[in-house]
Amino acid sequence: MGSSPHSRRRSTALGLTLAATVLVLGACASDDDSGDSAATGETMEASAGTVGGGRSDGDSSFATPGTTTSARGGSAEEPDAGSDVDVVAADDGATLAIEAQTTLTVEDVRVAVDSITRAVNRHGGRVAMADIDYGPQDDRPRASRERERATIVAEVPPDELDAVLDELEGLGTVTSFDQFAEDVGERLADLDIGIANERASISRVRELVASAEDLEDLVFLESELTSRETRLEEMLASQRNLEDRVAMSTLTVGVTEAPVRVITPIRGEVEARRPGVVEALADGWSVFIGALFSVVIVLAVSAPFVFTAIVLGAVALWVRRKLLGRPPRPAPPVVSEARGEPVGATSDPQD
């Protein structure tokens, strides 16, 4: 079936109108998220009449915790009836998220863990995480086993944090402590504004979806509605996370077993200190005995070498004598034939 030019022009005009409206709503939401104060104020005034206050629509899934002027730094709001989280504001108007970390050295980790858990519960808190390592349980002495340890992450009301820390000091030796606070008031105020504007945008897109006649426009609007609802859920999750951090301070406690000191007992009686002269004589005698002992040790070590050298020298001398023999006898004198005298003998001049 063909459609008349008039109906086609009307469908085209409706589609262009819907697309322009969605683009305007997206631009408004982007401006609100970027923190433009002028555009934010105008958009909040316009959206107040559209969504009826944004949070008072009775939808529990979009309910947010109640705030005060000092807590958020924005316009004052009455607490929501269905909210169970109280945002704690500091005396100077800041909304603080407090975190503390401490480490303890104790004699018994098991007893310390039980005491920490009871202290947290007694002051209105709860244990969010516990990592405990008691080590191998065997018959070895405590000094030879690995030390026990534990890490506990607890959530405590800010007003009770100091009381819990005071009790922890009595469990052992505090080896370290850190505490810091973050002012999240501006972030919560920005989330309030962004959530209200996102709800207004979702409401307008739903109205456009209900009045859409063209299939392409309907698909486009439903896609935009899904993306806006996803963004709204993300902002609500961030808001709940910040409010939980403000309502309950985070306390991390590290517990370590104290090292065991091994004491060696002294056997026998302790000798009394001697006078100076006697002590000097005793020290001199000890030195003499030590030197004499050292000489004896040296002689004992060198005795085999000296004995071997003596034996080898005696053998070498005996061999030398055997090879050379006795020294030769002198030759007999030669008798001269002329005079019958030995050659080389001198005559007496008086004869």
- Output the helix-strand order: HHHEHEEHEHHEH
Structural class: alpha+beta
Shape: elongated
Q: Largest beta sheet: what is the strand line-up? A: 2-3-5-1-4
Strand content: 5-15%
Helix content: 40-55%
Low-confidence stretches: 1-14, 27-88
What's the Cα radius of gyration?
Answer: 53 Å
Q: What's the total count of β strands?
A: 5
Overall pLDDT level: 72
Biggest pleated sheet = 5 strands, mixed
**DSSP summary: helix tally:** 8
C-alpha termini separation? 191 Å
Structural notes for this entry:
The structure is a single chain. The protein starts with a helix and ends in a 27-residue tail after the last helix. It is elongated and about 165 Å long. The longest helix has 49 residues, at 276-324. α2 (37-51) packs across α6. It is α+β, with helices and mostly antiparallel strands and 351 residues long. Strands 2-3-5-1-4 form a five-stranded mixed beta sheet. Helices cover 51% and strands 13% of the residues.
Detail the topology: elements first, then pairings:
Blueprint: H1 5-33, H2 37-51, H3 69-72, E1 96-106, H4 109-122, E2 126-133, E3 149-156, H5 161-169, E4 173-183, H6 185-211, H7 215-247, E5 249-257, H8 276-324
Parallel strand pairs: 1-5
Antiparallel strand pairs: 1-4, 2-3, 3-5
